[in-house]
């Protein structure tokens, strides 16, 4: 098989946040099919410093690498976007150096497929493309900005509405020229098909590392002082991400007063709004060394997202750790599991509070939900199973010919 050029908006290592988890497993899987060359951005020097570990993890299958620290700020990107009429999501990640690397890679004659991870990276794929072009949108980002525009205060409501409109036009044009376009769930894929009328749209879901996220695995346990007394209600995630901020703020305001226990918000970079929630019944941890430590101690994991796209890794991780999960419909969307057996889905504040209270007073029921959750993950969510369709999308008919 010819070489693959993998483009990513963040260095796909370590797999310690949602977008990196998927990109890492995609990259590793593709490296099992062919030699892979990588062009990506890094958030800062510390992020870029993960390259040696990435090379060691992939081995000889990783070829040429271009990595650069992204220095364009959101305000600057927004002004450029207004000036040139493009989505801000593209100007935020633009780079002449990365474009040059792509041109040189294609000129080598080795590249049979360009695999672009996240919509921002499609701008680096030439049109027409001399190689097969597989676009992993992951989520329909334009729909996310459209959702933001409905609730944000002015003037951000206008900003988000403009981004939704411009980004959708770019997503549609990209999918129209790609050989295959991927989304993280069938719900996202179906939404895109419905809005664009395009073919070649596929769903490849996220998986879960079942050996890592296993309640029986070896990992640090919380000290008794950290565990505290009473039930732990846990939310995990990147805590400067707007949908996560909205979720914990809503939960603290509308649901926590109706239930017992301590609400623990675990995740890096808590926004000022999140830090302000800390108090007698709410703990904001910031970054933790191993999220499994908190997951193992949680009585219930909550996912009260009101704005969500694609698959929520936080839900998969909690289920793999055999924790009972109470999730909103938005957080549950795209997950192949049975509500009421594998997790609890509640569609408003009162029903979520009732579901949590019912589990807290019935530990046997909570244990059964957690056990069913783990079984569902083991049955359907191993990464190899989830990513098996990639081979035919990269080189159609190659396996049949072999």
Automatic annotation (TrEMBL):
Stored SUPFAM superfamilies: UDP-Glycosyltransferase/glycogen phosphorylase
Keywords attached to this entry: Transferase
Coiled coil (residue ranges): none
Family annotation (Gene3D superfamilies): Glycogen Phosphorylase B (3.40.50.2000)
TM segment ranges: none
MF GO annotations: glycosyltransferase activity
NCBIfam families attached to this UniProt entry: stp1
Protein name in the entry: TIGR03087 family PEP-CTERM/XrtA system glycosyltransferase
Annotated organism of origin: Allosphingosinicella ginsenosidimutans
């Amino acid at each position: 098989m010819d070489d693959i050029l993998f483009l990513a908006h963040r260095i796909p290592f370590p797999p310690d946040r949602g977008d990196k988890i998927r990109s890492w497993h995609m990259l590793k899987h593709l490296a099992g099919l062919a030699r892979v060359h990588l062009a990506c951005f890094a958030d800062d020097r510390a992020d870029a410093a993960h390259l040696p570990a990435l090379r060691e993890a992939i081995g000889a299958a990783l070829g040429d690498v271009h990595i650069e620290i992204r220095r364009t700020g959101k305000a600057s990107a927004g002004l450029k976007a207004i000036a040139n009429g493009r989505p801000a999501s593209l100007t935020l990640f633009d780079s002449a150096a990365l474009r040059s690397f792509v041109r040189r890679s294609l000129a080598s004659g080795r590249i049979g497929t360009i695999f672009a991870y996240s919509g921002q990276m499609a701008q680096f794929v030439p049109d027409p493309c001399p190689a097969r072009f597989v676009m992993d949108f992951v989520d329909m980002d334009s729909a996310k900005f459209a959702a933001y525009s409905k609730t944000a205060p002015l003037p951000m409501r206008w900003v988000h509405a403009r981004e939704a409109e411009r980004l959708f036009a770019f997503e549609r044009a990209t999918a129209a020229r790609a050989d295959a376009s991927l989304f993280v769930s069938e719900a996202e894929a179906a939404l895109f098909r419905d809005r664009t009328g395009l073919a070649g749209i596929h769903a490849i879901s996220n998986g879960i590392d079942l050996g890592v996220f296993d309640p029986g695995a070896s990992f640090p346990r919380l000290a008794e002082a950290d565990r505290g007394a009473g039930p732990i209600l846990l939310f995990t995630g990147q805590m400067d991400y707007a949908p996560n901020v909205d979720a914990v703020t809503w939960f603290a305001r509308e649901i926590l007063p109706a239930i017992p226990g301590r609400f623990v918000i675990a995740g890096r970079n808590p926004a000022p709004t999140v830090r302000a929630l800390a108090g007698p019944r709410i703990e904001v941890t910031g970054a933790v060394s191993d999220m499994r430590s908190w997951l193992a101690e949680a009585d219930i994991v909550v996912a009260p997202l009101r704005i969500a796209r694609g698959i929520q890794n936080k839900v998969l991780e909690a289920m793999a750790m055999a924790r009972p999960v109470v999730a909103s419909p938005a957080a549950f969307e795209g997950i192949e599991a049975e509500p009421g057996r594998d997790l609890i889905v509640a569609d408003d504040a009162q029903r979520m509070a009732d579901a949590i209270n019912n589990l807290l007073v019935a530990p046997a029921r909570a244990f059964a939900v957690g056990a069913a959750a783990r079984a569902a993950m083991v049955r359907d969510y191993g990464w190899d199973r989830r990513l098996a369709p990639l081979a035919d999308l990269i080189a159609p008919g190659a396996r049949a010919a072999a």
